[in-house]
């Protein structure tokens, strides 16, 4: 700016110097026509008005008052510059005509005046060009700065420090770019911290879901084994129930058989008792027969004695008495043998009766035991039936648990896949956001705040989801506000 100011001052001094020389030549020159003096006076008049205006424009441009400089240039400078150019062109045309007329007389004066006039024109053009350049620079420089800032932001560098001076439109543009840069830096900082928090949380969720999936798969496998074992146990209990029912039927049949056997043994005992009674009666009858034989023997003996006493007359009676005695002895002997046999039979019948009584008692005990076994088998059958029903219910519950566990395993696998996808997306977001460059002073507090918000929910039972939601909502609102302001 100092160099440009010095160049403008030098050009202004050069114009003044050349105008002064031009006025001196007009005033001291011999035979200067009135028209030339009038044209020179017109140039002096326009330049006297144009010089202060040009200097004011330069001053405003150097003071960064571009709006005022542009207004002054459009309203005052351009008309005066056009009038100056017109006056110089008229004077140049006049001098050209005058030179053509007096080319032989005043070649030297013409050349000097023409050179002076050309110098004035060149100086005026140089001054106008310098002023236009300064004004253009005052407009283009902020625009270039804005373009450079926009390119820097587009490259992801948000560390640019934007300085704004002035209150014109370009300054407002730079201020808007500064606000946009600061807003983007804040938003990107929060998004970066949030993406890192989300990446950490999603990685933890993915790891937890993977662990839960493995545990659920193990539980599902255990439930499958349990279900298979329960099915086998159900089949075994069912078989036991069927065996118990069959045993109950056999026990009932055995009880019936034992009862009938007891009744038969009872009848046998009764028959044996009747046989014993009959044998005793037969023994009594044999005893009577034995007594009769004994008495017959005695009578025969007495008859023989009497026949012997009778002599010849009793000999035939003695023979008969001997025969009777022999028969009586044989009857007594046979009766004795029969008595012995009957006694043996009675003893054996008594022994058999005792054995039959014992057998009856044993059969009765067997019947009672069989009844008890039958009752126990009935209870076992009922318990086996109830156990079979209960195990079937447990088996159905285990099957339902197995089905629910399989569904939970599928849901956990889906959640694990979703968590891994979210982790991949958060990593992608983190990589995208990492392309932006931020100030460490503005990024670190946001990251610390985000890390605090992420760590807090992990100690609770609700999981990290609530912390993420609380972190995400203000970011969206702030980003929308920043973009709306932009």
Automatic annotation (TrEMBL):
Keywords (A to Z) from UniProt: Membrane, Methylation, Receptor, Transducer, Transmembrane, Transmembrane helix
Superkingdom of the organism of origin: Bacteria
Compositionally biased intervals (Polar residues): 450-465
Keyword Transferase: no
Taxonomic source organism: Caballeronia sordidicola
Domain HAMP: 137-189
Broad class of where this protein is predominantly found: membrane
Annotated segments matching region Disordered: 441-473
A Pfam family matched in the record: HAMP
GO biological process: chemotaxis; signal transduction
The protein, known as: Methyl-accepting chemotaxis protein I (Serine chemoreceptor protein)
Annotated GO CC locations: plasma membrane
UniProt GO MF annotations: transmembrane signaling receptor activity
Residue span, Methyl-accepting transducer domain: 194-423
Family: Belongs to the methyl-accepting chemotaxis (MCP) protein family.
């Amino acid at each position: 700016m100092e160099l440009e100011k010095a160049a403008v001052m030098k050009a202004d001094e050069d114009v003044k110097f050349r105008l002064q020389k031009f006025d001196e030549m007009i005033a001291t020159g011999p035979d200067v026509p009135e028209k030339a003096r009038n044209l020179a006076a017109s140039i002096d008049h326009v330049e006297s008005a144009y010089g202060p205006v040009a200097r004011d424009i330069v001053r405003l441009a150097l003071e960064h008052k571009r709006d005022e400089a542009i207004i002054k240039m459009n309203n005052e400078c351009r008309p005066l510059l056009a009038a100056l150019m017109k006056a110089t062109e008229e004077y140049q045309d006049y001098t050209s005509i005058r030179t053509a007329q007096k080319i032989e007389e005043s070649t030297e004066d013409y050349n000097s005046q023409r050179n002076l006039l050309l110098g004035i024109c060149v100086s005026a053009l140089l001054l106008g060009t310098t002023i236009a350049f300064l004004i253009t620079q005052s407009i283009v420089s902020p625009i270039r700065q804005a373009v450079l800032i926009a390119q820097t932001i587009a490259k992801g560098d948000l560390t640019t420090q934007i300085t704004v001076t002035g209150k014109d439109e370009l300054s407002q543009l730079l201020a808007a770019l500064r606000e946009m840069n600061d807003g983007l830096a804040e938003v990107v900082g929060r998004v970066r911290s949030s993406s890192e928090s989300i990446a950490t949380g999603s990685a933890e969720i993915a790891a937890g879901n993977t662990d839960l999936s493995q545990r659920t798969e193990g539980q599902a496998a255990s439930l499958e084994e349990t279900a298979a074992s329960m099915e086998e146990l159900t089949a075994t209990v069912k078989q036991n129930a069927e065996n118990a029912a069959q045993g109950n039927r056999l026990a009932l049949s055995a009880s019936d058989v034992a009862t009938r056997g007891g009744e038969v043994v009872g009848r046998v005992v009764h028959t044996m008792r009747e046989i014993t009674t009959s044998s005793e009666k037969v023994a009594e009858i044999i005893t009577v027969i034995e007594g009769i034989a004994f008495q017959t023997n005695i009578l025969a003996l007495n008859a023989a004695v009497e026949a012997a006493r009778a002599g010849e007359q009793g000999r035939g009676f003695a023979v008969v008495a001997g025969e009777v005695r022999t028969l009586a002895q044989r009857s007594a002997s046979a009766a004795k043998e029969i008595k012995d046999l009957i006694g043996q039979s009675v003893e054996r019948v008594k022994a058999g009766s005792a054995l039959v009584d014992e057998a009856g008692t044993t059969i009765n005990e067997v019947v009672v035991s069989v009844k008890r076994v039958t009752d126990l088998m009935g209870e076992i059958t009922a318990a086996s039936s109830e156990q079979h029903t209960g195990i079937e219910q447990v088996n159905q519950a285990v099957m339902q648990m197995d089905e629910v566990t399989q569904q939970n395993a599928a849901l956990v696998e889906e959640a694990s896949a979703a968590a891994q996808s979210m982790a991949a997306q958060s990593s992608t977001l983190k990589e995208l956001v990492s392309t932006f460059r931020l100030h460490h002073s503005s990024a670190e507090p946001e990251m610390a705040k985000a890390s605090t918000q992420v760590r807090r929910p992990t100690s609770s039972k609700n999981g990290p989801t609530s912390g993420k939601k609380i972190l995400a909502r203000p970011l969206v609102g702030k980003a929308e506000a920043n973009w709306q302001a932009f």
